[in-house]
Amino acid sequence: MKVLFLLDPAEVPNEDPQFEGRWHRRSPSMEHHVVHAARECGHTTVVMSFDGAVHSIARQIEQARPRVVFNLVEDCFRNRRLGCQVPALLEAMSLAYTGCSSAALTYSCDKALSALMVADRGVPVPPFEIVSRGAAPGRPRLRYPVIVKPRFTDGSEGISLKSIVRNSSEMERRVRLVHSRLQQDAICQEYIDGREIAVAMLGNGEPVTLPARETVFGKRKAGGPAISTERVKESKEYSEKWKVSYRRAPLSDVQQARAASLANTVYDCMEFSGYGRVDFRIDAEGGLFFLEANGNPDIRPRVFGIMAGWAGIEYTDLIQRVIDLALERRRKKSAIKV
Fold it and tell me: N or C end: fewer C-beta atoms under 10 angstroms in the chain?
């Protein structure tokens, strides 16, 4: 089967644009892992850069005639908020494509909108306020400490240890930084001190819930991070310094059932398909609180792949399932056409 991979331009190496050679980085990229796994499954692969030239890209895709498109684009026109436009294009071309729809990515990209949507379905969400770009925080109605985060970023972009604020002056400074540096609204949300888990899911209408992964903050009492900051996710050296590690979350039977139930509700509410991830905080009493929903999340072996492994799914089988789910969704849509 021919699988066409759509990637951000920065992820396509000039020296090996089809990923035919060995790794060109000390740490292989997610895109390398996925393309090579698809080849191990026996598929013919074509790698294409989504550079924003929509008409040219559509023409190239039509000429390639793939059976399925593996959508790994995050920055459409160098803007993560426009990533939802890629599945919209593929949908208009009547192509099978992996992962979430345009609507699902629109919902999950907006942290405020997604929080309001899942709260309406009964999922616990810490109280929050939106401070629009250019505005100053009003009289705070939230209990401190508060975490200040950008409204539209992912991968913890714009989140650091200083994002947790303890008074109104600290909050105002952090809000101004989000407005000026990231050019977007800020979300001020009551901070839940506790554990952090991620629940990955695989499927379309009735997804399989994979075992939860916990982020362990080993030196939080020594001034280290207690949240997944941008540096925690992007810097191996930083994580090693502060003893940040990951493990299968040790949850009670009640917590496991609760986490799976809430994650399923979020997955359905966001209209996710293919694969997704839902992040929660667990407070001192064991209560779970929604942090964010991630459509088309990081699917590297050490991230999504490790959770699939705990469920007995090898990495190549995971990639094959994602492809199969794309084909299944396309068949169902074709079957209901009038």
Answer: C
Beta-bridge partners for 293: 278
**Positions of E strands within the chain:** 2-7, 44-49, 68-71, 128-131, 146-150, 164-165, 186-190, 195-203, 208-209, 213-217, 244-248, 274-282, 288-295
Could you tell me the pTM of the whole model?
0.94
**Domains 2-98 and 127-190 equal at CATH topology level:** no
Distance CA 73, CA 51 (A): 10
CA distance 297 to 213: 14
Burial per residue of 53-66, b for 16 or more beta-carbon CB atoms within 10 angstroms, e otherwise? eeeebeeebeeeeb
Query: Which CATH number applies to 193-335?
Result: 3.30.470.20
Please state the domain extents for the chain.
Answer: 2-98, 127-190, 193-335
- How far apart CA 212 and CA 214 sit, in angstroms, is 7
pLDDT tens, residue by residue, 248-299: 999 999 999 999 999 999 999 999 999 999 999 999 999 999 999 999 999 9
DSSP state letter for 205? S
